[in-house]
Design a protein that fits this description.
- The structure is a single chain.
- The chain contains 13 helices and 9 strands.
- The chain is α+β, with helices and mostly antiparallel strands.
- It has 2 domains: 217 residues, Orthogonal Bundle (MetI-like fold); 127 residues, no CATH class.
- The strands form 2 sheets. Strands 2-3-9-6-7 form a 5-stranded antiparallel β-sheet, with no helix packed on it.
- Helix 3 runs antiparallel to helix 4.
- The radius of gyration is 38 Å and the shape is elongated.
- The two termini are 51 Å apart.
- InterPro entries: MetI-like, MetI-like_sf, UgpAE/MalFG_permease.
C-alpha cells in the first residue's frame, strides 16, 4: 500500500514512469471511429456515378460540341461563341437576361422583406403567409398558363385589363363611340372639324341644340341608352345628342323621332373665343345642360375623344410590355419563398437589440434601417443570389406566356438554347455554346453561395 496524503491511494502501476506503466496511446493504436474508407466509398460510388452521368458528362460534351457546326462534323472553334455576341437576335436575348438579373431579384427580395416585416405586425400572420406562399405549390408551367389568361387584352377575359378599365371608367365618364360621325349636309346644324363635332351657328340660352350622330354600331350602343328627348329650351344652354337613325326606315333626318335613342356619356363643351367655358355630360336620353354659364353666345362642341374607342387597358403581351409582364409572373411565384426565408432570419434577431434602440429614442424606420436590415443582410444576400440563379435559368414562363409573335422580343438565354437546338433551329453546336455561356453566368453565383454556407458552418 502507498501512503495516502491528500487523496486516495494510487497503485504503483499507474504512476508515470513506474515499472508497470503501459505504452503511451498513439494515433495508430487509437481505435478508428465510423466506417472504414472502403465502406464510405462503396456508399458514395452510386451517387458519384450518377453525378458523372447526369452532370459532368453533359458539361464536358457540351463544351466539346460547342466547337463544331450544326451538323457536328465541321470544326468551327469559337465561331459559335462569336455568333452569340454578333447576332442581333442574340444580343436582344442577352439584354433581356440582363433586365431579368437586375430587376427580378431586387423586386422579389424587397417584397419578401416587406411581407416578412408585415407578418410580425398583423393579426392573421399565418393566413397571410399561407396566401403569399401558395404560388410556390404551383409549377412554373401552370403559373404561365394562369398569367397568359390574366394578361388577355380583352377586359372581359383578362383580369389585369378588367381591373384597369374598371378603375379608369370610375374616374372617366366619357363613353367612346368609334366610327361614329355627325350627320352632315346643308340641313344639318353641325359640322365636323379636326375630328370634333361643332355647331354651325353660335347658340344662346333658350336655344335648343340638336346634334345628330350616325354610324353608331349596335354592339357599342350603351345598354342604358334611352329614347332621345327633344330639347325644350329654357334659361340655360341645353340640347340633345342622339343616334339619328330609325330602324326599318322612316323618320325625319335631323329631327328627334320617338324610336331613336340618345347617346349617353358623351362629353359636351361650350366654347367661347376659343376657350372652353363649360363642360357637360349627356344623360341616358342624350340630353345635356350647361349650368353656371355667363350670358352670351357659345359654340357647342363634341371633342374628338368622344369618337375614340373606349379605354381597353394595356397590351400586356405586346412587344413593349412582354418582359415586365413575365417578370411580374415570376415575382408572384417567388415572393412567398423569399418571405419565408427572410421571416426565419427575422425571428432569429435578438429582440433586446431592437428594444434597446427603441428605448434610446429610435423611430421604427431607424430601427428597421439601422438594425433589422444589417442583421438580416446574410439572409437577404442568400435570397438575392438564389433569385439571380433562378432568373438566369428561367424558361417555362417565357415560353408559355409570350405569344409566338413577340417571343423574339421576350427571349432569354435558356429558351434560346432550347429553340436553336430542338425547337426548329436544329443547330446543336450553337445551342451547346449557349448552354456553356449560361453555365459561365451561373457559376460565380453558385460559388458565392457555397463559400457563404461554408463560412457559416465553420
Amino acid at each position: 500500500m502507498t501512503e495516502r496524503l491528500d487523496g486516495p491511494a494510487v497503485p504503483p502501476a499507474k504512476i508515470a514512469g513506474g515499472p508497470s506503466a503501459g505504452p503511451a496511446e498513439t494515433p495508430r493504436t487509437r481505435r478508428r471511429l465510423g466506417p472504414s474508407p472502403a465502406v464510405a466509398i462503396a456508399f458514395l460510388l452510386p451517387a458519384a456515378l450518377l453525378l458523372g452521368v447526369w452532370v459532368v458528362y453533359p458539361i464536358v460534351y457540351s463544351i466539346f460540341r460547342s466547337l463544331f457546326d450544326s451538323s457536328g462534323s465541321g470544326f468551327v472553334g469559337l465561331g459559335n461563341y462569336a455568333t452569340i455576341f454578333s447576332d442581333g437576335g442574340m444580343l436582344v436575348t442577352i439584354r433581356n437576361n440582363l433586365i431579368w438579373v437586375v430587376v427580378a431579384p431586387i423586386v422579389v427580395t424587397t417584397l419578401g422583406l416587406i411581407f416578412a416585416v408585415l407578418t410580425e405586425r398583423i393579426r392573421w400572420s399565418t393566413a397571410f403567409k399561407l396566401i403569399v406562399f401558395m404560388p410556390m405549390a404551383v409549377s412554373l408551367m401552370a403559373a404561365g398558363v394562369i398569367f397568359r389568361l390574366v394578361y388577355e387584352e380583352d377586359p372581359d377575359k383578362g383580369l389585369a385589363n378588367a381591373v384597369l378599365t374598371t378603375v379608369h371608367d370610375t374616374f372617366s365618364s366619357s363613353q367612346g363611340y368609334p366610327e361614329a360621325r355627325p350627320r352632315t349636309g346643308d340641313q344639318s346644324p353641325v359640322n365636323e372639324q379636326n375630328g370634333a363635332v361643332v355647331t354651325k351657328q353660335p347658340v344662346q340660352a333658350g336655344t335648343p341644340v340638336l346634334i345628330p350622330i350616325v354610324g353608331v354600331k349596335p354592339q357599342i350602343m350603351p345598354s342604358n341608352a334611352q329614347p332621345a328627348r327633344a330639347p325644350s329650351g329654357g334659361s340655360a344652354v341645353s340640347g340633345t345628342v342622339w343616334f339619328d337613325f330609325t330602324q326599318g326606315g322612316g323618320g325625319q333626318s335631323g329631327a328627334v323621332d320617338p324610336t331613336e335613342k340618345g347617346l349617353p356619356g358623351m362629353t359636351v363643351e361650350a366654347v367661347k373665343d376659343g376657350q372652353v367655358a363649360g363642360t357637360a355630360t349627356t344623360a341616358a336620353d342624350g340630353s345635356f345642360t350647361f349650368t353656371g354659364l355667363p350670358a352670351g353666345s357659345y359654340v357647342v362642341r363634341l371633342p374628338q375623344s368622344n369618337f375614340q374607342a373606349s379605354y381597353g387597358g394595356l397590351t400586356w403581351l405586346g412587344p413593349a410590355l412582354i418582359t415586365p409582364a413575365i417578370i411580374g409572373a415570376f415575382v408572384w411565384v417567388w415572393a412567398g419563398f423569399a418571405m419565408v426565408l427572410i421571416a426565419a432570419g427575422l425571428a432569429a434577431i435578438p429582440r433586446d437589440a431592437l428594444e434597446a434602440a427603441r428605448i434610446d429614442g429610435a423611430t421604427e424606420w431607424q430601427v428597421f434601417r439601422r438594425i433589422t436590415v444589417p442583421l438580416l443582410s446574410p439572409v437577404l444576400l442568400v435570397v438575392f443570389v438564389t433569385m439571380i440563379i433562378n432568373t438566369l435559368k428561367v424558361f417555362d414562363l417565357v415560353y408559355i406566356i409570350a405569344p409566338a409573335s413577340v417571343q423574339p422580343q421576350s427571349n432569354v438565354v435558356a429558351l434560346e438554347m432550347w429553340r436553336v437546338s430542338f425547337g426548329g433551329g436544329n443547330n446543336q453546336g450553337l445551342g451547346s455554346a449557349l448552354a456553356v455561356f449560361l453555365l459561365i453566368l451561373v457559376l460565380p453565383f453558385m460559388i458565392m453561395n457555397i463559400r457563404r454556407f461554408r463560412r457559416e458552418d465553420s
